[in-house]
Amino acid sequence: MLEKKVISAILHFQIKPFCLKKKHTTIYVIIYSTACTTSLLQSFHRSHVMIRDRRPDGTQSVARIAQIAQYRNIPLSIQWSAFDGYASPQNTAMGPYVYVGLIPKANTHAGGTEGYNEDGHDLTFVNCDANINSYFTFLFNANKAQPSPYHPTNSELQRHWITAAAAVPSSQNLPDAYFSFFEMHFGGCGAYGTPQHLPQTNGAAVGLRYGTMCRHAT
């Protein structure tokens, strides 16, 4: 059972109130509590995550993030304030955080094709120097630390998950409290970005897939 104290909301990104012909509504959970564990996060499916971002004008958008084609058989790594097998975030002082690792460090190398899949489309780059970064991190900044001055890498990879995301109807908007500082980092000549570098958005939330729910019409 999911522990209620660490679950802030169950979100139906696919609004299908009744099941017909074995169709199901997928349940995603957004965690923004500061009390969680990596073992609890293992309860979630790891084929993909849904990233909801908040725009300065108050609108919200959502993108489905998964592995690129050549790594599709490697599940995402979802960790709580840890990054075992992956690169460290630049902003660990802004923890606790949910870490979503894509390509493990054991699979990264100079000259390798890396990146992420956004809504079925691979966004890739060639790793130029064997840096092992391949992650999105969502940081709750309990101690109100200042962000790292680490320099951004301006690229299509850095912003595509925002610019190509699907608009969310205003009736389904999340409260502001669900959104946090984020960090995305790839490569080795891929991308680095936070809300400091991406004026299109001022926060993000990660939706973790838990399962399906079916309610039959009566």
Radius of gyration: 17 Å
Helix content: under 10%
Let me know the number of strands. 13
> Can you give the mean pLDDT?
84
The termini sit apart by: 28 Å
| H and E order | EEHEEEEEEEHEEEE
Largest sheet: 8 strands, antiparallel
Structural class: mainly beta
Short description:
By secondary structure, the protein is mainly beta.
Describe the structure.
This protein is mainly beta and 218 residues long. It has one domain. The protein has two helices and 13 strands, in the order ββαβββββββαββββ. It has helices at 38-41, 156-163; strands spanning 9-11, 25-30, 48-54, 60-66, 77-80, 97-101, 113-118, 121-126, 134-139, 166-167, 181-186, 191-193, 203-213. The strands form two sheets. Strands 1, 2, 3, 4, 7, 8, 10 and 13 form an eight-stranded antiparallel β-sheet that branches. Strands 5-6-9-11-12 form a five-stranded antiparallel β-sheet. A hairpin with a 4-residue loop joins strand 11 (181-186) and strand 12 (191-193). The longest helix is centred in the last third of the chain and has 8 residues, at 156-163. The protein starts with 8 loop residues before the first strand and ends in a 5-residue tail after the last strand.
